[in-house]
Design goal:
40% of the residues lie in helices and 15% in strands. The protein contains nine helices and seven strands. The strands form two sheets. Strands 1-6-5-2-4 form a five-stranded parallel sheet. Strand 5, helix 7 and strand 6 form a beta-alpha-beta unit. The longest helix has 11 residues. The radius of gyration is 22 Å and the shape is globular.
Length: 171
């Protein structure tokens, strides 16, 4: 498995955050895959990135060859875009990986890269992952702040029925 991991790493190019940002500003087309958990993806991701679902059972099915990388993409739009990007450049990232050799063979990023190489795609690892990219180029990221129920915030406090002369418990 180690030699297979090394041979895949030989097909993966590294792109740094500044290069990716420059290319995105120049409208260069990349298919961007976010290999982080869906909750992390939902809170912040590179604009246009598609998340892959690598939960326990899904990962086992993928490793057994019962589902494909396309099946792991979390949106129908993403699946269609991926299938139409024949031989196109694909950027893959997680939180902070800088080098493939630092990852285990079962890491989702490695599994995605392996699938891309087998499919004949041109995979790029985003050096430093989303953490570094977001610090350097926040305008190219989509951030979802937790929603606040405005009706609760803007409504006056509901009176607490208490017995006259008693102080309501504040804790």
């Amino acid at each position: 498995m180690a030699s297979e991991h090394q041979s895949i790493a030989g097909h993966v190019q590294v792109i740094n955050p500044h290069e990716l940002a420059r290319d995105l500003h120049a409208d260069q087309q990349y298919f961007i895959i976010d290999c982080r958990p869906v909750l992390a993806y939902n809170s912040c991701h590179i604009s246009g990135a598609i998340n892959v679902n690598f939960t326990g059972m899904i990962k086992k099915r993928f490793l057994a060859g019962k589902i494909t990388l396309t099946d792991l993409l979390t949106t129908e739009e993403g699946k269609a875009k991926f299938q139409s990007s024949v031989g196109g450049a694909t950027v893959v990232y997680d939180d902070s990986t800088g080098d493939m050799k630092d990852l285990s063979a079962s890491h989702p990023l490695v599994l995605v890269m392996r699938a891309l190489v087998v499919m004949g795609k041109c995979p790029y690892l985003l050096r430093g992952g989303l953490n570094e990219f977001n610090v350097l180029h926040p305008s190219l990221c989509e951030v979802s702040l937790p929603s606040v129920n405005r009706s609760i915030v803007s409504s006056p406090p509901t009176p607490n029925p208490t017995t006259p002369g008693t102080v309501p418990h504040l804790f």
